[in-house]
Design a protein that fits this description.
By secondary structure, the protein is of the alpha/beta class. The chain has four helices and three strands. Strands 1-2-3 form a three-stranded parallel sheet.
Length: 88
């Protein structure tokens, strides 16, 4: 019995994040990443965000690190810079 790893959906820019919010009709707020992950279209996916992009998103809402990362607890944050070359 093999369990398949969930597919990863990479967010590599602030513009991509904002477009995704609009496309999924998710409110533009500091917990937007978490709300995206709760949508049906992301049921079998893990949202992965580069830390520098996450910090841009956090700065957009002027919220503390604790509040932002706590509100987006199901999101995977990575320091990888190679996400720019990943095809979505």
């Amino acid at each position: 019995m093999t369990s398949q790893q969930p597919e990863k959906y990479y967010i590599a820019s602030l513009d991509q994040y904002l477009a995704l919010l609009k496309a999924e009709k998710v409110s533009d707020c500091f917990s937007g990443l978490q709300r995206l992950s709760d949508r049906d279209s992301f049921d079998d996916k893990i949202i992965v965000v580069r830390v520098n992009i996450a910090e841009q998103i956090r700065a957009r809402y002027s919220t503390t690190k604790m509040a932002f990362y706590g509100a987006n607890r199901d999101i995977e944050f990575t320091a990888q810079t190679t996400l720019d070359s990943v095809e979505n």
